């Protein structure tokens, strides 16, 4: 790369870091890339670090030593997250979203890249301090959200299927009880998709009782994997007890009345529980 002016170099370095979260980048990478001295690169990184932290974009960690470098950790403050989720709650409360059976239409929200991007960043911020190997979800609506989260954590995504796909080779399949309708359903995961003893973050778009997530946990036992966290975009508050206890939710449907067409949504337990994770 040609030698850049400092202002241009700062812009390019910032972009380079933003597109490589949770990746250790040696100072020599930047020094060689911009044909600049390490002392100049260090000064540039100090400026970027200050802006990242002041503007709430994340942290720029510095590791000293021969094998050291810098690592960008995306972060979003709980206050900024709350303001965003409150806007989502107002959208969820629109009466025209109520579907037959008391279900709520959310596909338009889940189809907006900006919303998925922000929610993924929130989950990445919540679970940034966990030792995680992969992000897992079940097809289909949770897939975009899992990829958004994995992007900010710089991790691969593993997708649990509702049935076994021939193109994925041999798979492990289990039966589980759907929490919403108590029906026996099947989910499967290709043996090649997940290494044994992996550390997994489960992400899902909606949780009513938690039967699907509980099923994924049972499936992970077949791989001797460890669940390091569970993130749910929207949870239902109209159930007496969830099948899982340790999870983080960003929004909560506290009431859905098909007769009056009234929906009440509020921030999830990430904002209301004092012991919710915030690294």
TrEMBL record:
Which InterPro entries does the UniProt entry name for this protein?
PRTase-like (IPR029057), PRTase_dom (IPR000836), Pur/Pyrimidine_PRTase (IPR050118), PuR_N (IPR015265), PurR_Bsub (IPR010078), WH-like_DNA-bd_sf (IPR036388), WH_DNA-bd_sf (IPR036390)
Q: Does the keyword DNA-binding apply?
A: yes
Coiled coil, from the record = none
Sequence ranges assigned to domain Bacterial purine repressor N-terminal in this UniProt record: 5-74
Q: Per UniProt, which keywords does this protein have?
A: DNA-binding, Transcription, Transcription regulation
One Pfam family of this protein, by short name?
Pribosyltran
Q: List this protein's GO terms for biological process.
A: negative regulation of DNA-templated transcription; negative regulation of purine nucleobase metabolic process
Q: Which domain of life is it from?
A: Bacteria
Q: Could you cite one Gene Ontology molecular function of this protein? A: DNA binding
Start and end residues of each Phosphoribosyltransferase domain: 112-250
Q: Which NCBIfam families does this one have?
A: purR_Bsub (TIGR01743)
**Stored PANTHER family:** HYPOXANTHINE/GUANINE PHOSPHORIBOSYLTRANSFERASE, PUR OPERON REPRESSOR
* Quaternary structure and partners: Homodimer.
Q: Which family does it belong to?
A: Belongs to the purine/pyrimidine phosphoribosyltransferase family. PurR subfamily.
Q: What is this protein called?
A: Pur operon repressor
Origin organism is Paenibacillus cremeus
């Amino acid at each position: 790369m040609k030698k850049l002016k400092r202002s241009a170099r700062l812009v390019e370095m910032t972009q380079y870091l933003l597109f490589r979260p949770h990746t250790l980048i040696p100072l020599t990478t930047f020094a060689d890339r911009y044909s600049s001295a390490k002392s100049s690169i260090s000064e540039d990184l100090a400026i970027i670090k200050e802006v990242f932290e002041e503007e709430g974009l994340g942290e720029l960690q510095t590791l000293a030593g021969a094998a050291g470098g810098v690592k960008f950790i995306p972060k979003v403050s709980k206050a900024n997250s709350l303001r965003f989720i409150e806007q989502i709650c107002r959208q969820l409360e629109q009466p025209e979203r109520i579907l037959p059976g008391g279900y709520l239409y959310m596909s338009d929200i889940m189809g907006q890249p900006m919303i998925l991007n922000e929610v993924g960043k929130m989950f990445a911020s919540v679970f940034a301090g966990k030792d995680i190997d992969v992000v897992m979800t079940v097809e289909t609506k949770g897939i975009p959200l899992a990829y958004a989260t994995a992007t900010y954590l710089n991790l691969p995504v593993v997708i649990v299927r509702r049935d076994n796909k021939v193109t994925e080779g041999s798979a492990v399949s289990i039966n589980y009880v759907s929490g919403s309708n108590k029906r026996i359903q099947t989910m499967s995961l290709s043996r090649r998709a997940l290494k044994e003893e992996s550390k997994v973050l489960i992400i899902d778009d909606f949780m009513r009782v938690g039967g699907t997530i509980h099923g994924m946990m049972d499936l992970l036992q077949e791989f001797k994997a460890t669940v390091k966290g569970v993130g749910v975009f929207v949870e239902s508050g109209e159930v007496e007890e969830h099948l899982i206890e340790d999870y983080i939710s960003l929004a909560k449907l506290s009431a859905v009345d098909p007769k009056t067409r009234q929906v009440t949504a509020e921030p999830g337990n990430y904002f209301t529980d004092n012991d919710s994770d915030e690294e």
